[in-house]
Design goal:
Two copies of one chain form a homodimer. In chain A, helix 5 packs parallel to helix 12 (299-314) and helix 8 packs across helix 9 (203-213). Chain A is built from twelve helices and twelve strands. Chain A is an alpha/beta fold. Helices cover 41% and strands 19% of the residues of chain A. In chain A, the strands form two sheets. The first copy, chain A, has a six-stranded parallel sheet with strand order 2-1-3-4-5-11, sandwiched between helices. Chain A is elongated and about 85 Å long. Chains A and B meet through helix 4, strand 1, helix 5, strand 2 and helix 11 of A and helix 4, strand 1, helix 5, strand 2 and helix 11 of B. Strand 2 of chain A pairs antiparallel with strand 2 (99-105) of chain B, so a sheet runs across the interface. The structure holds a DNA duplex (16 and 16 nucleotides).
DNA sequence: GTGAAAGCGCTAACAT
DNA sequence: ATGTTAGCGCTTTCAC
């Protein structure tokens, strides 16, 4: 390991024959401070010559900001296109010279204080909860302490006390999906999806209304945990039941894939014997057979937009507390 | 936004009736410095009372370390179980109080200097390239400048000049997979997989040898880019050709899924008409139909182990430069 | 066993 | 238009 020889702004100042302050003014392009072009040039020359890069830490110390935000996601989000959102956040933050520090929601008691402590110790300037279950008491505490944070999820909770939220309009596509099922000539529908712990899931209700509007027969909403075996058993029982639905709406991609798989195992052909569609985005929608018709979320933009909103909050600017992004139905082959 | 009132170690010192130095000694549990238990207690009491958390930035400034490492991954890795590796890295680093800063490989000219600049400005203490294409000139430069870094990939490059590598033994399972194909009673095999740009891919060669050892007929190795349409066209042509293989080994999960999908489109039944297996881990291996037999990688451990190795490097400890982790064949239904 | 004091490298208010 | 200087909050050497 090579010893690191630090070049400081002092060195640059000496080399350029100016003061440290001038170096700082030039490098930071400070407004209301006029520097003669030749001085400016001299500074840049010295910077180049000495290969100087300002110590980010020293700067942060002065400014009391780390220029990094913590992005929190659930442990279980190990799949799907979540990385897309991360990319959006990264690019959104990069424009303001912020970086992403990745955190995982451990669901442990300590996690909450971990966040607060990251914030108090100036290690992180703000937080983005991306598809993570945020319990109310945590939100309340963050609000209370004035910690800047933002929540990214498929739909907004609405009760954004102090934080901001980025969501999508995916619920409005559910009636449209139901209409598609209807158009394909079927009548019996069912919904399968996750059982949420930390908040109410608006999807089953939206489904129920959409079924009613389209005069379809509702075979029921079936909810269970994210456990793969449990999902498959639930779908299996549903497809084997006497009131077997002809169309299934899956609350998220995972439930959709298992529906496809179980149907295949039972020898049901899609879209011949069964129609299916899912809510949410996944790379696998294009890989599976048949490819899955789904309501796709603007994952990248959700991250990008969220990042910008958080930066605004961190800079004490006034911003919309809620932003809804457009989603769209993408027809593939399962419906 | 609430104004942040910082409590400094000075405040704690005053409250506890000791000096700032003592506070530092107590909080950092400095060896060879003996503190009377009652003094120690007084400090902790004051810390609790004032709800003090040390400024991470000030500490970093003194120590010239940011306690964060940059994790670089390719833009294209938006799917699969990559998050598992990230979790492993996160947990591995957390033990040493390091955090993850997420970076994406932009493949642009500027990216290289971005890394160097993060390092030079003390913003990041080291780097982990996780399933990212690292070009040789970058590695050389990092070696030259003594930048601590580590590469995580399914197999090691071997030429780890200055950096360290974590890989797997997945190549040794290829003959075993070939033997399984043989056992199932087929004779004609083919390999489909990605065309790598930045390094040689050892998989096609391992495949060729495995085929020979098992006395199977090699219908050839077919390589193309990661483009979905291109992959499907390639697989389609292969399955329609007169020398259609009875078994296909996919170089990675994506190629495996497209093989499944194209086969289904052509009405080929798996495992009846065609056998398939893939190299690598994906959550979809369990979702698709039939579930995919594959060589699974220890994604979490690769991250966890890699994190520990990098910490050792950053602390100038002597470490193995290469670590190979065990992978395993998981039988599902496609073979 | 504990304290005083010197910085780390930067920014910004104030002076010139 | 540029320089002087006083910290930011911590660690650590050296005194006592």
């Amino acid at each position: 390991m090579k010893k690191k020889i630090r070049v400081s702004s002092k060195d640059v100042a000496r080399e350029a024959g100016v003061s440290q302050a001038t170096v700082s003014y030039v490098l930071n392009n400070v407004e209301h401070v006029k520097i003669r072009p030749e001085t400016r040039q001299a500074v840049w020359d010295a910077v180049k010559k000495l290969n100087y890069s300002p110590s980010h830490i020293a700067r942060g110390m002065k400014l009391k900001r780390s220029m990094s935000v913590g992005v929190i996601t659930d442990r279980s989000v190990t799949n799907y296109n979540f990385m897309k959102t991360l990319q959006g956040i990264k690019e959104g933050l990069a424009r303001f010279n912020y970086t992403i520090t990745l955190l995982f929601n451990t669901q442990e008691e300590t996690f909450h204080s971990e966040i607060i402590s990251y914030y108090n110790s100036n290690r992180l300037d703000g937080f983005i909860f991306a598809f993570a279950a945020v319990e109310d008491y945590i939100r309340n505490d963050l609000n209370l302490k004035g910690v800047p944070y933002l929540i990214i999820d498929s739909h907004v909770s609405g009760q954004s006390g102090g934080g901001c939220e980025v969501g999508t309009d995916h619920l409005i596509h559910i009636p449209g999906l139901a209409a598609l099922f209807k158009e394909r000539g079927i009548s019996r529908m069912a919904y399968v999806g996750p059982l949420l712990r930390h908040r109410e899931d608006p999807k089953p209700r939206a489904y129920k209304e959409a079924v009613k509007i389209n005069h379809l027969v509702d075979c029921g909403s079936y909810l269970c945990s994210f456990d793969d075996d449990e999902i498959r058993k639930m779908v299996h029982d549903l497809l084997m039941s006497p009131k077997r639905p002809q169309g299934i709406l899956a609350g998220n991609p995972r439930f959709g894939f298992h529906t496809l798989r179980v149907a295949a195992e039972l020898g049901l052909r899609i879209p011949g014997d069964l129609l299916a569609a899912s809510l949410g985005t996944s790379a696998f929608h294009d890989f599976c057979y048949p490819p899955m018709t789904a309501v796709e979320l603007p994952l990248f933009d959700m991250g990008y937009t969220g990042a910008e909103m958080l930066v605004d909050i961190m800079q004490d600017k006034d911003v919309d507390r809620i932003r809804i992004l457009p989603s769209e139905i993408v027809l593939r082959g399962s419906l």
